[in-house]
Amino acid sequence: MHNSVQRYKDIISSIDRKIEEQKIQLTPKVIAVSKTFKIESIFPLIEYGHLDYGENKVQEAIDKWSAIKFRYKNIKLHLIGKLQTNKVKNAIKIFDFIHSLDSMKLAKKIADEQKKQDKNLKLFIQVNIGNEEQKSGVKIDQIDDLITFSKQLNLNIIGLMCIPPANREADKYFKEIKLLNKKFNLPEISMGMSSDYLKAVENSSTYLRIGSSIFGQRS
User: Fold this and answer.
1) For site-directed labelling of 128, which of 106, 115, 157, 160 has its Cα 20 to 30 A away?
2) Count of domains in the chain?
3) Residue 127 burial (CB count, 10 A)
4) Is 88's pLDDT higher than 90?
């Protein structure tokens, strides 16, 4: 068995144990974050039957996944990196989910482009949960306005996404996102990465973005 498949199976086992231990109702989906990895490294996991993959650059995703998605119709591709408005057209062509909606300008661009392409992607609003200057995402007090505006554009907002501050305890931020998600009555939450995914499971995350723990360290 390929290393990435074994590591993936170990992660699924650890999630299942956590769910059983904490009596959690929902089993989250794992997004295998394949950014920067070549398709040869990802292929064993595709062959194993895993369906959800994450990329953070639009062009890389198009180059890497176009032929694969044509061949494997069930694969879902998640954009987990920042989306520039000039890349929206191509993003909508290749992705099924966008985890980084963070402005009205971007919402409008996505809505216009989806009409042209007759697409309806699933969208997460990225929240700057730690209020960090260098990070993307809306401030907590702007979530309501962005959701309202997005729904007026008929965008399919399914949940909130966050990346907690690197040097602080993630649990506190996950709890906050969980409460916000409930407040806005959204069904999905995108949070948890290789270093903190079990904490995210405890806080009802429904999509975990796990890369290096599956594919190994990025070069």
Assistant:
1) 115
2) 1
3) 27
4) yes
